[in-house]
């Protein structure tokens, strides 16, 4: 009747996420990117197990987009030096593994990328940018 088929709970969650993004610091934005990629892979995994190939592919594509156009694109190779270069290579590896997982419906490969993202995500959560600025 009003042109929206969205579930009100889904619409509220989407609005809250958009507000979080607008107010987020650069550090928080990276955390949100990790959370988004990990969430997309988790949903892709469920669809892979259940044989929902189109949905699996859609969520893997979302994870690839977040990793390549969010996490990797946010790296400052000049300022970050060797570490940034290694992260860029790792993000490229993750993207290639996700493409493989999508092509072969390979759940263990999804788990591998999820684990890699989890390790880097944990490291990012331990960074306290406010404490860094006080030095």
Summarize the model shown.
This protein is mostly helical.
Main beta sheet strand tally, sense and closure: none
Per CATH, the superfamily is: Flagellar protein FliS
Strand composition percent: under 5%
The shape is globular
Radius of gyration: 17 Å
Total number of domains: 1
The CATH architecture name reads Up-down Bundle
Which spans have pLDDT < 50 for at least 5 consecutive residues? Answer: none
The number of helical elements comes to 6
Order of helices and strands: HHHHHH
Describe this structure in words.
This protein is mainly alpha-helical and 135 residues long. The chain has one domain (8-127): Flagellar protein FliS (Four Helix Bundle (Hemerythrin (Met), subunit A)), CATH 1.20.120. Helix content is 85%, strand content 0%. The radius of gyration is 17 Å and the shape is globular. The relative contact order is 0.12. The model has no long low-confidence stretch (mean pLDDT 87).
